[in-house]
Design the sequence.
């Protein structure tokens, strides 16, 4: 059996932490006197905390000093952490655990490739940490997706050739990063939004073990 490397994004792929980012950003926006919508939150998917805050301040027509900007970033992260503190295994998205178990059983490499700086803590909370051979998160990379650094870093640590890597992503920037790395890209979410991916599924319940076996044997 051939050995491939399966690289998973975290937010929106393994767990849905977008809702917690939304609550924390909305709290910040409200504290400054304006609102923050779910549509705006969608535009922040896969975007760094700095860039996200820049966008939110622009939407609210606010300008702040560098010092205040840094304080707002810390505040947002602290609020976000209080939400994820309460996470447990119920937060794992449907059939993700089943997919990980199947890949483990087939002795495939499994890695995390996420921009989140809280990835390790979240995987611990939902009891999935031991399923991953390698973790590459926001603490390990300098360049945000669509730069392929996060995925190339994971491949390197697994000693895998990029063409033997399969990436699961829910954000356009993440799909572009996988494509830029020369990897197989699998979009999790909306077909129209993620049309640049090699394959798109609404969620992991649509991904069969036959499909995974075909990826392994390719």
Sequence:
């Amino acid at each position: 059996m051939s050995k491939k490397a399966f690289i998973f994004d975290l937010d929106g792929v393994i767990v849905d932490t977008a809702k917690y980012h939304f609550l924390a950003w909305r709290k910040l926006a409200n504290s400054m006197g304006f609102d923050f919508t779910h549509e705006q939150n969608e535009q922040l998917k896969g975007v760094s905390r700095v860039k996200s805050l820049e966008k939110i301040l622009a939407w609210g027509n606010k300008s702040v000093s560098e010092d205040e900007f840094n304080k707002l970033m810390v505040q947002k992260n602290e609020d976000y952490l209080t939400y994820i503190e309460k996470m447990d295994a119920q937060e794992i998205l449907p059939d993700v655990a089943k997919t990980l178990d199947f890949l483990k059983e087939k002795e495939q490499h499994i890695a995390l490739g996420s921009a989140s700086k809280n990835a390790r803590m979240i995987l611990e909370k939902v009891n999935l940490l031991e399923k991953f051979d390698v973790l590459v998160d926001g603490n390990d990379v300098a360049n945000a997706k669509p730069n392929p650094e996060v995925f190339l870093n994971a491949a390197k640590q697994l000693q895998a050739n990029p063409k033997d890597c399969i990436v699961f992503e829910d954000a356009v920037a993440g799909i572009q990063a996988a494509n830029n790395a020369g990897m197989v890209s699998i979009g999790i979410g909306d077909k129209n939004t993620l049309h640049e991916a090699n394959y798109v599924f609404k969620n992991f319940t649509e991904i069969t073990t036959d499909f995974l076996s075909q990826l392994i044997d390719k």
